[in-house]
């Protein structure tokens, strides 16, 4: 009987340890998500589309969850003024304001997204104005840059090549100046014709 009790005790101890390990792992995963705002926004959009209510199945690709039922999304350039009363029907949409806010595609947003401002103090200039379907496009001013694929709030000054180096790659709105050594120039001493007299 004692031989059987020891394996049972070990098995129970392992099960208790596992039950404590998995909730902690789930908790750690949730903590990691809080630091990634983009993941949270995407997760929120996904939940609105796929969340099941007591009465309904999953919302369709062109729908969002409004209360306990799905409504058709508003088109780009608009946001939801009032959700639908009857499931799977159109919402009442309101237009975004030109130059003030926008939405880029079908959505269930209660408000349009504010247009970004190209702040001169941050070294930026406007390339194209905000429309109701597209955000403002900003670029760095001359002699300033923001690295490609890295969102930046403030443009950085382009590097000046130090003495003894030359510009190998000029600064652009997305890349810094590339400097390199100046190639050595061989000095040629001209031969003079010397005539002996």
From TrEMBL:
Q: What GO biological process, any one, is recorded here?
A: motor neuron apoptotic process
- Provide the disulphide bond pattern: 140-155, 158-171, 161-179
UniProt signal peptide = 1-21
Asked if the Swiss-Prot or TrEMBL record annotates the protein with the keyword Signal, the reply is: yes
Please name the Pfam families in this protein's record: TNFR_c6 (PF00020)
Q: Where in the cell is it found?
A: Membrane
Q: Which InterPro entries match?
A: TNFR/NGFR_Cys_rich_reg (IPR001368)
Q: Which GO terms describe its cellular component?
A: CD95 death-inducing signaling complex; external side of plasma membrane; membrane raft
| Keyword presence, Metal-binding | no
Q: Which Gene3D superfamilies match?
A: Tumor Necrosis Factor Receptor, subunit A, domain 2
Tell me which UniProt keywords the record has, alphabetically: Apoptosis, Disulfide bond, Glycoprotein, Membrane, Receptor, Repeat, Signal
Q: Where are the TNFR-Cys repeats?
A: 95-138, 139-179
- Top-level taxonomic group: Eukaryota
GO molecular function list: tumor necrosis factor receptor activity
Q: Which named protein is this?
A: TNFR-Cys domain-containing protein
Record the organism: Latimeria chalumnae (Coelacanth)
